[in-house]
Structure formats: C-alpha cells, structure tokens
Task: inverse folding
C-alpha cells in the first residue's frame, strides 16, 4: 500500500503523515473522474454541515445539493452515502465508533426528514466488520448500553463492536433503503485498514455526486445544521 519513497499509494488524507504532493496527486486523479469534491476535517464527532468546496470544515458529515459532490475518508470506519428526494438532497457521513454511539446516523436521517424527504437510499461502504473489530470488555459493554445490539463477538471469541451492522440496523429501522458493499477492510488488503496496518494506514474515499440538473426544492439557507 506504499509507493517508493514511503508515500501511501492511493491515499487521499492529509493527516496521516503522507507527502502532501502524494495526497494532491490522488485527489486530482479522483476528481478528474468525479468533478470537484468537498472534503472534511473529520474529528469522530456528529456534526453534519453543508458542503463547502472552498474550505474543509471540521465535521463528520456533509450535506449535498444538486451539482455538488462530497467525499468521506476512511480506513476501517464506515463511509455512509445517502441520497433522497430523487437526487434533491444527499449526504456523505463518516461513521466511526464515537459517531455511531453519538447518534450521527439518526442525525443524518433526521436531516432528510426535516427537508421533507422520506424516501432515502443509502450505501454502506467497505469497513471493518464486527468479527474483526476487537475492543475491550468495558468498551463493548459501554457500546451495548448506549446502542443495544452494537456489541459483537470476534472470530477469536473476544468482545467487539459491529459498526457497519449497527449502521444498517438503524437505517432499516428508520425506513431507509440500505445496500451494503459487504467488504471488511481488515480482511481485504485492497483497502487501507488502520487496524491491520497498525495505525500506519492511508485513507481511501467514499464519494457522492448529485446531478446538477435535479432541482432542489429547499434553499440551502433553510437546511437545519447538526
């Protein structure tokens, strides 16, 4: 997963110690295919803000309108892509353990509902599975108290947390049409994995681009912020 000279091959994150020129290269290659993308400074929180292509806000979710694209960076956390209202509104959401337990998935669904959109489709991208995400007993118990059904048993018989499974259950409960890539980043070496690579991983991106020709019925200024 590294290029000669120590750069992360395919890495799109600026915060992992990679060479800035390498990050710029991979972002340019991606945006040559997708068009301009808004990026975030992700902090494992629950803030969801409007996409801003001029700056990278400190947030873990971006709201997208027609003609906008956004990216979420991950290397074990869940890249959650959401679209509703026949493309009138979209969101890219970074769901790690803290965000999951803090309620960021419900916040994202609430955002669509407050915009008058109840028909929502979502995709759960590659992420570490519950059979590979091992945590201590106390952390697993805390997760289970906060979000029932979130704890898991790993393939080694220890305690874990099932982030992608929990995201899917929340979305299903909220009536969202959910599809999952079903790939575990810990097991599949095509993807960066913070755990498999012992904290020396780059980040890959999940992205969503909304068609510019789809009319938005809700002005950006009227959208609630979370």
Result:
């Amino acid at each position: 997963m590294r290029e000669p000279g120590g750069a992360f091959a395919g890495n799109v994150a600026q915060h992992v110690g990679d060479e800035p020129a390498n990050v710029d290269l991979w972002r340019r290659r991606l945006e040559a295919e997708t068009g301009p993308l808004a990026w975030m400074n992700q902090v494992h929180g629950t803030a969801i803000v409007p996409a801003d292509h001029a700056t990278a806000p400190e947030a873990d979710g971006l709201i997208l309108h027609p003609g906008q694209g956004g990216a979420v960076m991950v290397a074990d956390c869940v890249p959650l892509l959401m679209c509703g209202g026949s493309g009138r509104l979209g969101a890219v959401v970074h769901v790690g353990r803290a965000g999951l337990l803090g309620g960021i998935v419900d916040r994202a669904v609430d955002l669509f509902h407050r915009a008058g959109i109840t028909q929502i489709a979502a995709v759960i991208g590659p992420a570490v599975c519950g059979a590979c995400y091992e945590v201590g007993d106390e952390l697993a118990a805390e997760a289970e108290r906060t979000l029932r059904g979130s704890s898991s048993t790993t393939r080694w018989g220890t305690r874990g947390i099932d982030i992608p499974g929990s995201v899917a259950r929340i979305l299903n409960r909220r009536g969202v049409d959910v599809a999952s890539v079903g790939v575990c980043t810990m097991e599949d070496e095509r993807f960066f994995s913070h755990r498999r690579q012992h904290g020396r991983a780059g980040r890959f991106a999940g992205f969503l681009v909304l068609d510019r020709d789809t009319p938005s019925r809700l002005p950006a200024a009227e959208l609630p912020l979370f």
In short: The chain has one domain: 39-211. The beta strands are 48-50, 61-64, 69-74, 78-84, 89-95, 120-124, 151-153, 159-161, 177-180, 204-209. Residues 167 and 173 are 10 Å apart (CA to CA). The chain is about 25% helix and 20% strand.
